[in-house]
Amino acid sequence: MNNIARIREKLAEKNLDAVLVTGEKNQRYATGFPFTDGYVLVARRGAWLITDSRYIEAAGKAAPESVCVQLYDREHPALELVKAALAQAGVERLGAEEEGLSHSRYLALEKRLGRELLPAQSVFSELRAQKTEEELQSMIRAQRISEAALAETLPLIKPGMTEKEVAAELVYRMLRHGSEGNSFDPIVVTGVKTSMPHGVPGDLVIQKGDFVTMDFGSLCDGYCSDMTRTVAVGSVTDEMRNIYDIVLKAQLAGIAAAKASVPGKDIDGAARKLIADAGYGAYFGHGFGHSLGLDIHEAPSASPANAVPMPAGAVVSAEPGIYLPGRFGVRIEDVMVLREGGCEVITKAPKELIVL
């Protein structure tokens, strides 16, 4: 079953005749084309990809045969082509991505199309939460690219390098190994900045005895990878080693609890309890993990706020951390696929404490 067929099943389930797709990632999910402009319309009877002269040839090659690729221009405005497709498909109940559209654009589309738009964001959030094996293979390839980049970068890290220099090495090597780009702006922090979970790489120089935290990811077929490793440079104190060991044990506890049908908060709770019991509960503020796919952050999450059972096929990060303000922090992140009886960790990079 291709994604157009999956979307149609959801349309029937939600009593919709069609969905107008405006979000780039959802357009790609539907058609396979890395869209940058235009509209995708998926109806119970027919599917259309409407774009301009810059992308028409590439779109025709990328889209499934079941998708009608149409060119819009000054004589044939995009929304007029959408209106014609709606009439051809006999659409009465039309959905749209209410969370991805601004209020003004939502209203403008309703006015131009002459009909009410019904909420349909859940069509995509529910489908994209459960990865197909094809999607998973793309994510595994992206992960292998990131791991190769890390393996080549680690021997280069030494006192005197800046955070920006380490980040540049990771980005360069991911591209050399085939990444389509960064799945997000990489985080590389050292010394006291490792206590900032989302610190920005700067000109801070690595010193002997520092931790260096690297959080980064590649893209393959549009799908993201995500991993974090914290390493020590030159030496490590007993306290630093102890914190690292607590974080690693917490991550393993969360991974052991992770499987389909378990609420996200229970996966998070398994890791959070271990950190709290060790006396560092106040220093783990974010959730245990988030889903990822075409976006680096997708639903559902393994966080205290998610009481909903996790679906089979969800790809979720496992990234607990302890952050001591003004001193240092540790985060270790892998990515796992939730199955009925447990989970499969697709990250293969070593995660025992490395002292460079």
CATH topology of the largest domain: Creatine Amidinohydrolase
Distance between the termini: 48 Å
Amount of beta strand: 15-25%
Mean pLDDT: 96
For the largest beta-sheet, the strand count, sense and barrel status come to: 6 strands, mixed
The radius of gyration computed from the alpha-carbon positions, rounded to a whole number of angstroms, is 23 Å
CATH class call of the largest domain: Alpha Beta
The low-confidence runs, each spanning 5 or more residues with pLDDT under 50, are none
Q: How many helix segments? A: 10
CATH architecture of the largest domain: Alpha-Beta Complex
Task: Tell me the domain tally.
Answer: 2
The total count of strands amounts to: 18
Helix content: 25-40%
CATH superfamily of the largest domain: Creatinase/methionine aminopeptidase superfamily
Which features would summarize this protein structure in a list?
single chain, 356 residues, alpha+beta, Creatine Amidinohydrolase, Chain A, domain 1, Creatine Amidinohydrolase, 3-stranded antiparallel beta sheet
Write structural notes for this entry.
There is one protein chain. This protein is α+β, with helices and mostly antiparallel strands. It folds into two domains: 3-129, Creatine Amidinohydrolase, Chain A, domain 1 (3-Layer(aba) Sandwich); 133-345, Creatine Amidinohydrolase. Helix content is 36%, strand content 20%. It starts with a helix and ends in an 11-residue tail after the last strand.
